[in-house]
UniProtKB/TrEMBL annotation:
The chain crosses the membrane at residues 7-25, 37-58, 65-89, 95-114, 192-212, 240-268, 280-300. Keywords: Membrane, Transmembrane, Transmembrane helix. The keyword Transmembrane applies. This is Uncharacterized protein. It comes from Streptomyces noursei (Streptomyces albulus).
């Protein structure tokens, strides 16, 4: 299956290269179409390495190559979360070809990761450990990630309730949203004083604390028939991995960009704001939120991964 994906992904890159459709985007503009060759290379490597894994087994060298190609696919999948969010609220993506590339690369990450771990099967009778809290330092990091989102949520909520911040009013925010193709649901929520990104931040915070507290490993009472059952590991790990892989680099790089602008090394365009200073202020608030939450989510995800690994082995005939 992984070899088939690699072949299909390479063919996708070849087609886009031939017709000149860029699969990667820079800051506000598509990257050169020549970078599409990277997709061809990643797909071809995935096909060759996975075919070798089938023929010769997942040995140490083959496993290292699989994880390397998996990491390259993860880089190509960057932006998938943003595509999903914009599509959820009726906004069009910047490029359907780039969005398809993000989705295909994310599928490749799952397949390549599963192939690389195919030799690490849990022993027969292995059981999931009892629900547990993350270490104190990880929970402290979760607190920091939650606090990092507070200024961002306050800013967006202030706008939604009709306030003016950074020289921009709610009317201007709604006008920009309409111009960017926001759905009626998005605009309706704004008119009710509910910013959609604040709701997503609340869901993200719920996910973060579910990763570090015991209740994130067992279905709660309100799930009725699932009450008391163990939560499948992939259910919180899948969105957590996507979120961490997207928000952490986006926020860290964005924070670095804001620092360079603040020191005068780079200039910032005002965009939808009235002045570069206003754009920089909003940029700092947003990037600190994304960086703080993204890095914290990565830390919490690793902790959850380690704490929920099946361990032990049931011994038959033991007294």
């Amino acid at each position: 299956m992984t070899a088939f994906w690699g072949t299909a992904y390479a063919a996708f890159g070849v087609v886009c290269t031939v017709i000149g459709t860029p699969l990667f985007h820079g800051v506000g503009a598509p990257a050169p179409a020549g970078l599409d060759y990277a997709v061809v290379v990643v797909g071809a490597l995935a096909a060759l390495v996975s075919a070798g894994a089938v023929r010769y087994g997942v040995r140490t060298g083959v496993r290292a190559l699989l994880w390397t190609v998996c990491g390259l696919s993860g880089i190509a999948a960057f932006g998938l979360l943003m595509d999903v969010i914009t599509l959820m609220f009726g906004q069009g993506v910047d490029s359907w070809a780039a969005a398809a590339n993000h989705a295909l690369a994310a599928v490749g990450v799952c397949l390549l990761g599963a192939t690389a771990r195919s030799g690490h099967r849990p022993p027969t009778g292995a059981r999931a450990p009892a629900p547990s809290c993350a270490p104190a330092r990880v929970q402290l990091a979760a607190c920091a990630g939650t606090v990092a989102f507070l200024p961002y949520c306050a800013m967006k909520s202030f706008w939604a309730f009709g306030g003016t911040f950074a020289g921009t009013s709610i009317e201007e925010v709604l006008t920009t949203s309409r111009r960017n193709g926001a759905s009626e649901m998005w605009l309706t929520l704004e008119s009710w004083g509910l910013d959609a990104t604040v709701l997503l931040a609340a869901l993200g915070t719920f996910l973060l604390w579910g990763l570090v507290r015991p209740w994130g490993q067992v279905f709660p009472r309100w799930t009725l028939f699932l009450h008391g059952r163990r939560v499948p590991r992939w259910l919180p790990l899948a969105p957590a991995l996507i979120g961490a892989a997207t928000l952490a680099p986006y926020g860290v790089l964005g924070t670095g960009y804001c620092a360079l602008v603040s020191t005068g090394v780079l200039a910032i365009r005002p965009g939808d704001f009235h002045s570069p200073q206003s754009a920089l202020l909003v940029g700092w608030i947003g990037m600190i939120a994304f960086a703080g939450y993204g890095v914290t989510l990565a830390v919490a995800t690793r902790s959850y991964w380690l704490r929920t690994r099946p361990t032990g082995q049931v011994r038959t005939g033991a007294r």
